[in-house]
Amino acid sequence: MLFIDLLQSIADGLLFGATYSLIGIGFTLVFGVMHKINMAYAAASVAGAYAGLTLLKLAGLPPLLVIIMACLAGAVFGLLTYVLCFWLIPLSHPLATLMSTVGMLLLIDEIVVHLTAGMPVNYPTVMGGMVSLGSFLLRGDLMFIFTIAVLAMAALMYLIYRTRLGLATRAVSQQPVAAQLCGMRLGQVNALTFTISGALGGIAGSLIGSAVGLLSPLLIAPLTVKGLIVTVIGGLGSIPGAIIAGLLVGAAENVFQFVRGVTERDIYVMLLLFVFLVFRPGGILGADPGRN
Amino acid sequence: MLELRQLCKHFGGVRAVDQVSLRVAKGEIFGLIGPNGSGKSTTVNLIAGLLLPTSGRIVLDGEDISSLATHQRVARGIARTFQNIRLFGQLTVWQNLWVAENRDRQQRAQPVMPRWFWGCEGDRERLGIALEFSGLAHKRDDLAANLSFGEQRRLELARALASQPKLLLLDEPAAGMNAQEIEELDARIRRIRDAGVTVLLIEHHMELVMAVTDRIGVLNFGQKIAEGSPAMVQNDAKVREAYLGTAAA
Question: Which of A134, A206, A280, B168 is the most exposed place for a label (fewest CB within 10 A)?
Answer without folding.
Answer: A134
